[in-house]
Q: What sequence folds into this?
């Protein structure tokens, strides 16, 4: 590998990292995420019931919060440089669009990964140190609840965050102003994310989506793919009639496709201003 | 016999159109070393577009831009109008970042700060800098990587007279160091005093070109300001007649 080609991307990544760490709004966002995540887990008594119940308690909040935090971290990364005139300055340097996008993504991804893993690690520690509330446990078996499942939950949540960070970065490269960026984000969340959920629900209810197709279709949107993956891989739903929550390979491929396509869009849009 | 020095950048018949509006119309220009070339013209005459094309940020629809050296290093420095920098970083950190992107030795940061007179402000955060200081930081940034050509788009806009003079003195120093410098400016008095070559752009066309002295002689004017008025008035009239109104 040519390390010299990596150098400019690493310099960009380092700058992104320091930008996030020095920006009060981002620190507040990280603290809010931490407080809400740990607070929700505690309020729902998840730690007394084990890892899997805690995951189930946090699944929907993570599906909502992680995309918000990730997009908030990403949508100004390139747009901010463009509005200040720094993007034009940077274009006169020996810095390619690939290096610029990868550097921006990696720098902010490190912070996002830290925000998610630290918050969920604290929840995991709480589960580990909190004595189980035997009175409230209706039924359990030893192998169904384990820290390994929680680690998978954390990994999948980080992946969800990285996908939405890449989407935020693509929006940042496309938008000409903060107002446009916010409009694109809103349209994306409503039309693509919420719209897809509604489409699936109507399709199933109307019978024009076959039940056996559902697990594969869930892979098409990042949040449905995440939900299916968590239920399948981190919760471990077992059905006696063979119903599955997701097609894991397709869901993982779907999430990586969203990540890769978003970065490719950012790469082609960044210098087309 | 005078020795012909090859220009750093040669612009030949470039044209750029945005949605049927001709922003730059068949402009040809040579940018030599050790010279300050100033592009002047009314607002909307195409100065920024021309500079952006010279900097390689926009490709012309027609015509060619050729460089003397087309290596992988930084070909030209560029300073956009009213530059701002990412907040939370000091002047020194900002320049160090650009130096590292260029692959240059970060030790040059101190000398760049000295060149533009920002050594005292090196520990200030960029959000604490005045407009003039930001412009100087922008000029220092345009020198990172030691490009042979520096392109500055209205580097004195919004500055007080003392700071404007200082910016032009800094530019003089760059030219003395052997660089080619091209600026867009509305500061006609300072341009007259400092520029080696002046190009007057009007309606996207380069309507006059020469040293300030030659232009003043040609248009029988006592200042570049008077030349500018005469040229843009004539060209404006021509444009109106062409438009049929």
A:
């Amino acid at each position: 590998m040519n390390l010299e080609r990596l150098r400019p991307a690493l310099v960009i990544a380092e700058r992104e990292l320091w930008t996030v760490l020095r920006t009060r709004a981002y620190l507040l966002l990280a603290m809010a995420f931490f407080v809400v995540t740990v607070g929700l887990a505690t309020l729902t008594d998840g730690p007394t019931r084990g890892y899997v119940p805690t995951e189930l308690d946090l699944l929907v909040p993570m599906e909502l919060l992680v995309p918000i935090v990730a997009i908030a971290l990403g949508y100004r990364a390139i747009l901010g440089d463009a509005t200040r005139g720094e993007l034009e300055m940077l274009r006169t340097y020996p810095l390619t669009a690939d290096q610029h996008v990868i550097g921006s993504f990696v720098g902010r991804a490190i912070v996002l990964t830290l925000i998610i893993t630290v918050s969920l690690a604290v929840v995991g520690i709480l589960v580990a140190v909190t004595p189980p509330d035997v009175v409230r446990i209706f039924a359990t078996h030893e192998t169904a609840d384990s820290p390994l499942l929680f680690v998978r939950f954390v990994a999948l949540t980080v992946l969800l965050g990285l996908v939405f960070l890449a989407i935020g970065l693509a929006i940042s490269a496309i938008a000409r102003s903060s107002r446009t960026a916010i409009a694109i984000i809103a349209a994306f969340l409503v039309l693509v994310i919420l719209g897809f959920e509604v489409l699936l629900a109507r399709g199933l209810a109307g019978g024009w989506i076959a039940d056996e197709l559902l697990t594969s279709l869930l892979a098409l949107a990042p949040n449905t793919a995440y939900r299916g993956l968590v239920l399948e891989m981190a919760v471990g739903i077992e059905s006696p009639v063979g119903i599955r929550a997701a097609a894991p390979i397709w869901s993982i491929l779907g999430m990586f496709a969203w990540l890769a396509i978003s970065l490719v869009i950012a790469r082609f849009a960044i210098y087309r201003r | 016999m005078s020795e012909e020095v090859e220009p750093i950048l040669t612009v030949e018949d470039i044209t750029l159109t945005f949605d049927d509006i001709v922003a730059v119309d068949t402009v040809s220009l040579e940018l030599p070393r050790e010279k300050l070339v100033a592009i002047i013209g009314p607002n909307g005459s195409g100065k920024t577009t021309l500079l952006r094309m010279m900097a390689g940020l926009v490709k012309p629809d027609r015509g060619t831009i050729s460089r003397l050296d087309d290596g992988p290093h930084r070909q030209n420095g560029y300073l956009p109008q009213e530059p701002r920098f990412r907040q939370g970083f000091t002047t020194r950190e900002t320049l160090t970042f650009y130096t590292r992107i260029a692959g240059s030795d970060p030790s040059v940061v101190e000398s760049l700060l000295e060149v533009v007179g920002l050594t005292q402000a090196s520990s200030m955060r960029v959000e604490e800098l005045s407009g003039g200081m930001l412009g100087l930081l922008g000029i220092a940034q345009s020198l990172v990587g030691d490009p042979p050509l520096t392109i500055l788009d209205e580097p004195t806009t919004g500055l007080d007279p003392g700071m404007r003079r200082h910016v032009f003195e800094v530019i003089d120093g760059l030219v003395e160091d052997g660089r080619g410098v091209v600026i867009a400016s509305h500061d006609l008095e300072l341009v007259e005093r400092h520029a080696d070559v002046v190009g007057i752009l009007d309606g996207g066309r380069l309507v006059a070109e020469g040293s300030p002295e030659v232009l003043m002689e040609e248009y029988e004017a006592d200042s570049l300001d008077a030349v500018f008025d005469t040229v843009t008035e004539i060209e404006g009239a021509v444009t109106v007649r062409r438009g049929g109104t």
About this structure: Chain B touches chain A through 34 residues (CB under 8 Å). Confidence is low (pLDDT under 50) at residues 240-245 of chain B.
